[in-house]
Amino acid sequence: MANSALAGFLILLLFFMCAMSLGKAEEEDIRKPYIIHMIKSMKPQHFYLHQHWYASMLSQVSESNANELLYTYDTLLHGFAARLSEAEADAMESMEGCLAVVPSSLNKVATTHTPEFLGLSSSSSSSPGLWSQYSTGGEDIIVGVIDTGIWPESKSFNDAGLGPVPSRWKGTCESGQAFNSSHCNRKIIGARYFYKGFQNNVSKINETLEYMSPRDAHGHGTHTASTAAGAAVTGASLLGFASGTARGMAPHARLAIYKACWAPEGRCDDSDVAAAMEHAIADGVDILSISISSEDVPFHMNIRAIAAFGATEKGVFVSAGAGNRGPLSSTLSNTEPWITTVGASSIDRDFPASLVLGNQEIYRGTSAFKGGDGKLQGPFPLVYVSASNSSKRCLDGSLDPNLVKDKIVLCDQLIDPDDSSAPEKANEVARAGGAGMIVANEELLGAQQQFSYTFKFPAISLSFKAGEKIKSYINSTSNTSTATAAMRLTGLTIVGNATAAPIVAAFSSRGPSEAYPSVLKPDMIAPGVNILAAYAGSVDYILDSGTSMACPHVSGIAALIKAIHPTWSPAAIKSALMTSSYIVDNRKQEIRDSVTMEAANPFAMGSGHVDPRSAMDPGLVYDMAPQDYIDFLCSLNYTKKQIALLTKRLISCPKSSFEAGDLNYPSFSVVFKPGNNSAQVSRRTVTNVGAVAKGNVVYRASVKSPPGVSITVEPQTFVFRNLYDKATYIVKFESNIRTPSPSEGDQNGFGEISWTCIEGGRQLVRSPIVLTWQASN
């Protein structure tokens, strides 16, 4: 009996050990995409092509056929992408010629009136718009859009009036599911798709939900492409809302589409995005628009940042969204100084609606419900179903018809990937038999922020503050009487000074950058709330919000600048956009932050709101070459191998007095470390790009300093005699502020330096200043 028990125990133990061993083997065999950075010059001579070298390296780390070579990179970075296990990745990194092996990360994708709001078009003969003033719509500038693809049948992509495709174009129009070469034209001059990383990191493409081709099943890419460079389409609207002529910022520019993000969630694998960027530059784009967000990490951990540097080296302007994780601080994406980082703001357009409670309190909101006729609907009983978190948010299937039938239902809208959209909430209320819906933002979306949604059901969007007051009203009547409400849905679109704009959107990610605290980000804000643009499928145009919408506005405006100033570097174009930005709204008040409804600071809006007209003739620019960025990274003590990811060769950092604050950036971010209040000094060089006619061009400096800080500029006057003359100035920051305690946390102060043209022009060249006093440990 004892022997039998012992034998059973040994069998059980053996089974357990085998299972553990099998589990460990399976764990070790898990493969996912990695990006392998290589030193190109170290290729052994017996390999004819680098691809042969890479294949040999793969065979050395494993004999498995699963180690598929996904992509090779030759333009913006050197190396390849492949499926590896963690152990194989470690082995690969130790091989000669390998700089780094980095897991390929997954990220997500982050109009009719905006041209007039931005001064590109105008109905006034006394104040012509930029398009008529310069007779340009970005002719023959090629805008590359890396996103979810394109819906080519949209009228926004018609090529009427466009000349032949620029002869320098080297791209192609790839065929695939429901897409062929005939879908390209003189507007969409190229389209490619990249999926290998996504399929190996997530799952096989579901061709019932997605097109295995450049065709857009998500809608995001179509929206961003038409915002940047869509053609003019008269009579565009969403169910009659926001009607007018829809067109992109650069309506005569050409579009090159690179699909690297996939439905249903618009997720993008880094290896696919890097391959898309490689092809875009090789194809010949002038502008790259990337509405994709990720964590704010140092450049050597971010493949898009490395590829963007390579694009900048080739003279291509790269713009990207700041991210939609505001209003919390240090939530930015795309913070590298060679990328133009764009936050989101509102425009002066509204779709007014109102709610009248039983106690006669009135709350003004917004709604794009086509059935609205301006008449009061109701009153109806009003309810907030607080039985569960799901019912509070009116998630699919969460509402009990017995509780909501023939009632107006209040639903919470959260910043949460698991939350449903407002139209989906409205569908749930309709399914449960409700009479109408109120959707109220959570506090992080802004105390006063309202978003317009398209509803097929009577519904209104209200701010967080309004939602809280309505909940208080419902609670106050629960024991005495029934809470009621009536809706007034106007069905109107209101444009003009009746709506204060721009206002920084609550969702727009905020600085400071944790990876680069000496560089102020975001760079600027642009329209990104309730933007009407083209969409995929049966819906021609939709309203959408996000820094994904703000980014292509700047991309298109950069195309306009490139058309007027074809020799300007990406840094010069960025400088023109930043130093010409404005910081007052349409009511001549300081631009406000929708979270506090107080004046926005540079961590929310960067240099200010983009101003295309002023950016065309900025007077002075802060120009930079790729070496300036290398010097900047050397000053931050990055290693030789990390910097080689950018330079694509091993270099030694120069022994110089260059400090991080000396990067020739159009804004200033000065950090006082704990216990060190000694004066900080920054240097800047400006280039005169304003016309020099008769006589000289003279600029004079002025400074705004926060309390307790002295800021001095030397010299205070510049005289330029020729176009492209340069001048250098020094800024000294002296602080009387004590080091904050740990409980106080880091403290900030804000100011600005402005150069005003007092002779030979009228330009104002403004640079914001952020000062940070780091708390003691």
Description:
Residues 138-585 form the Peptidase S8/S53 domain. The protein is of the alpha/beta class and 777 residues long. Helix content is 24%, strand content 27%. The chain has a 7-stranded parallel β-sheet, with helices on both faces. It has a 7-stranded mixed β-sheet with strand order 19-18-26-21-22-23-25, with helices on both faces. Strands 34-41-40-36-38 form a 5-stranded mixed β-sheet, with no helix packed on it. α8 (270-283) packs parallel to α9. The longest helix is centred in the first third of the chain and has 27 residues, at 2-28. The protein is globular. Residues 9-28 and 123-127 have low confidence and may be disordered.
Strand tally, please?
41
Shape: globular
Percent in helix: 10-25%
Class inferred from helices and paired strands: alpha/beta
Given as residue ranges, the uncertain stretches (5+ residues, pLDDT < 50) are: 9-28, 123-127
Distance between the termini: 67 Å
Average residue-wise pLDDT: 87
Share of residues in strands: 25-35%
Total helices: the number is: 19
Strand order of the largest sheet: 7-10-6-13-15-16-29
Radius of gyration: 28 Å
Strand count, sense and closure of the main sheet? 7 strands, parallel
